[in-house]
Design a protein that fits this description.
2 copies of one chain form a homodimer. Chain A is an alpha+beta fold and about 350 residues long. Chain A folds into 2 domains: about 150 residues, 60s Ribosomal Protein L30, Chain: A; about 170 residues, Phosphoribosyl-aminoimidazole Synthetase, Chain A, domain 2 (Alpha-Beta Complex). The first copy, chain A, is about 35% helix and about 25% strand. In chain A, helix 3 links the parallel strand 4 and strand 5. In chain A, helix 1 runs parallel beside helix 3. Strand 3 of chain A pairs antiparallel with strand 2 of chain B.
Chain lengths: ~350, ~350
């Protein structure tokens, strides 16, 4: 029979809500010593270690807004949904310990599609050492939506907020910027090519780093640990989800300070430079506004500069000024122009 | 100009993502002493009191699946989204302290619609003494979706799970059952009448309790306190979101016990009885399978019976048996029939 041709299409209604949750989460084991109770009760229960405070962050990823399933594999989507939330926990200088995952999904997705998403979630949870302790799976009338809440812990004196930057502090960024946005541009272009000629075989070799940064971003779990090892307590910190300029402005606004950002200091991967040229885009604009890099941006006291200056993961890109001096980009041509937030904005793009 | 006729239609894209979140959440003040940091940083920060464990629950409400905006006012929707999550915290015998709220919304909703939802969220947060400490607002391609994560605290020895029911324990329920489901039936009927004759003026007077239970449910914040005051520590507890039979079966399965539920003990409001007759529905079936009552179902040791027997909020509806005896309903005619879970199921209804 025609209907039996693809045996891997199990309708989600066949399992029912509880059956489906059981099926998808049965392999999630609790490994964190602070995870007292996970999925299967009215709520998860978490022990908080002595002297620690709890950190909680939540994010929604919506099909057609935050991702396009025509080029995002479901497993990558599950992985990314976890990673982008963990990034917020690391941006508090905290250790991530648990997540909850809720998924709304229309009937056009078979159980096997959800299994793929959960496989990605499980991979990320394992790699980042967090337990999946709760969640909800429900229907949607159209499309797919993933809501993740990430939970972490840290000592109060270790936590870093956005509002602690002080005049003369150095502005530091981890990794490099702009690659995720360019990865998206490459994928969008290939999608258009595919529409015209479904048999075309794209050569994505020159863009591997960009595409990986877009489809399988990593959160900087290593940075809070690195900073602790170096004996550096940042004064302010934020993760770069919306583009460097937008995040710098968040820190400056909340800390009531100004800044000078130096264009020539912004760390760019060679693929970002070459692909920007190919797309006739300005690589600085990409780094400033591209977003989805999930690097950490933070400020440190100048006294801490010797501790980080030799570190290949960290780049000093500017410094904090008095609020009256405003927020500026110092270009390669040594011109001072106002820094504008033009980060990717889920509501404006709609 | 025609476009200016309704000045209360502000497109959400006019404010942008950050502007919108600021606008909607600017009136949320932190009142709980455990709320260290709320909206506006990468994550919320929560202090955990000495000796307490943390309880976390998350739920999604999806337009067209969990609610129908043709008869659910937006303010009520915001209120209900909070309440149904808090109910899970109380079902752990814990105190709810914080929530995060994420909303995905299509452009057909103006800012004023989101303001209504947030007004309902604020009303619930105030009444239940919880702080809104985080959230996300984003576009959806269609419809409205609300994801709430509720956070609470309790001492480990006070927490109640689903798996602690013991043979001979009494099965107890708060309040009365079935009203919310019948309220939905009344609203669905009026919607159909309205479609045929938009000028009809329905007389909803005989259904006020039912409609209130459907549109503005309350979570049993009072029950954990009442139990503490009475000196009763339940052995197992769950909230009734999917119907009494489904919830009893959850407790029996997880506690590895059986039960006898007595039909004549199930507490029903007079409006449930009269409206069941009008709709030619069996009121026991409604109570067993209706769902959305958000009452608490729990088991207690027989020794604790004297402490609760005179309480008007609590009804003993059955008792726990050995697992081998199975899970049964003892009907008014004194027949013993197997208890079947036919609770409302968001995935099967799709």
């Amino acid at each position: 029979m025609l209907e039996d041709k693809n045996p891997l299409k199990t309708n989600i209604s066949q399992l029912g809500e509880f059956g489906l949750i059981d099926h998808l989460t049965k392999n999630f084991k609790l490994k964190q010593k602070t995870s007292i109770r996970g999925i299967g009760d009215d709520a998860a229960v978490i022990a908080v270690e002595k002297g620690m405070q709890l950190v909680v962050s939540t994010d929604l990823l919506v099909e057609g807004v935050h991702f396009d399933l025509s080029y995002v594999p479901l497993k990558h989507l599950g992985y990314k949904a976890v990673v982008v939330n963990l990034s917020d926990i690391y941006a508090m200088n905290a250790t991530a310990t648990q997540i909850t995952v809720s998924i709304a999904v229309s009937n056009r997705f078979p159980v096997e599609a959800l299994e793929e998403i959960y496989a990605g979630i499980a991979t990320a949870a394992k790699l980042y050492h967090v337990d999946v302790v709760g969640g909800d799976t429900t229907s949607s009338t159209t499309g797919l939506l993933i809501s993740v809440t990430a939970i972490g812990q840290a000592k109060p004196e270790v936590l870093v907020y956005r509002d602690g930057a002080k005049e003369n502090d150095l502005l530091v960024v981890s990794g490099d910027l702009g690659a995720a946005y360019l990865g998206l541009q490459v994928l969008e272009r290939e999608k258009e090519v595919f529409k015209v000629n479904p048999n075309s075989q794209p050569d994505l070799e020159p863009y591997t780093y960009l595409i990986e940064r877009q489809l399988k971003p990593e959160a900087r779990k290593d940075i809070p640990k690195l900073l602790a090892d170096l004996g550096v307590q940042p004064t302010a910190m934020i993760d770069i989800s919306d583009g460097l300029s937008s995040e710098i402005l968040h820190i400056c606004k909340q800390s009531e300070v100004g800044c000078n950002l130096y264009e020539d200091k912004i760390p760019l991967d060679p693929q970002v430079i070459s692909t920007s040229e190919e797309f006739k885009l300005d690589s600085t604009t990409i780094a400033l506004s591209g977003g989805e890099d999930y690097e950490l941006l933070f400020t440190i006291s100048t006294e801490d500069f010797p501790k980080i200056k030799a570190n290949p993961h960290l780049t000093v890109i500017g410094h904090i000024t008095h609020k009256k001096e405003g927020t500026h980009l110092i270009t390669r041509a040594n011109t001072k122009i106002p820094l504008i937030a033009r980060g990717w904005n889920a509501l404006q793009e709609d």
